[in-house]
Amino acid sequence: MKKIPQKWKKTRMKQMNKFKDVMDNILSEIDKGSKFVLTSHVSPDGDNLGSTLAMYRFLNKTGKNVYYVLDDDIPSGLSFLAENIEKLSSSQFDDNNYIFISLDCGDIGRVCVSEEIIKNAEKRICIDHHYSNKGDFSDINYIDVDASSTCELVFNLLRRYEENMKTEIIDSETATLLYAGLLTDTGNFQYSNTHPSSFEMAKVLLERNADRDRVVQKIYQSNSFAYYRILGDALGTLEITDSKVENARVASITVSIDMMKKHGIGYNEIDSITPYTRDIENVEVGIFLKERKPGEIKISLRSKNFVDVSKIAAAFNGGGHVRAAGCTINDSIENARKIITDYVLNSF
Question: Which fold does the domain 226-347 belong to in CATH?
């Protein structure tokens, strides 16, 4: 059995200790503040929603006025996470004297609210785990690129609050939100960002009555009929290209606006097609391209072993993680596929 290196354990513990001052600084600002605006990145995913809404519930439970603002739709498969929480658009928010908290946003271009809301905040706090985050759009940054998810950082923050206040703040609903984000960002504990701390976090959340069965059923076992119809069409676009490295091929799948219209499914409802590009024998990099609007192609990149897809995404003004990243190419979907595939092949 492969053991976790002692060096890794010590490094992770050192990282955790390093962020105690940052966490205490954030908790101090929360204690002093009375009004908060929370948001995350465009195209909501499980970690986006889990971290933001867990923070929302924490602030609400500690007597703060909290506004959840996001200029995007929540995918139907994740809407259960936002039950009983009102989501506002930027145009619906008109207030002042607030602290702004962005969660799971690697750069300011991904923050899914208006520039005015960011600019007018009394203070800006960023909680994130993306490699691409330079920490240049917030006053206080809690950025840990070694964390499995932003939900793990929120979990650490709430546990720090519990330690300082000698009380429990993570209830069943908050635990469920954090578990959802942890599960999705680790790919159900399959991805390389799954660490011992991920399982320790899961243990605590289950002890706090996280509704594991509901999360699993809603996220992984409730796909619509339309999803499977478009998945069939999408797999029909699959292309696999050999690289100069043996047993390290590149696979790509495309989904156009016309395909989404044909099956009556939304842009944010099909991201779970992405792993199909990577989960093929001898494929090192998977590429999923979906057309947001004519001439704007969202690209999701996944790798298995040695390709750092965050560097590839960065070349197109995107970002993400070593094994999972994304970017946008403004071109036709056919040209975008050729451009990104050629770039990936040249990066081997």
Answer: Diaminopimelate Epimerase; Chain A, domain 1 (3.10.310)
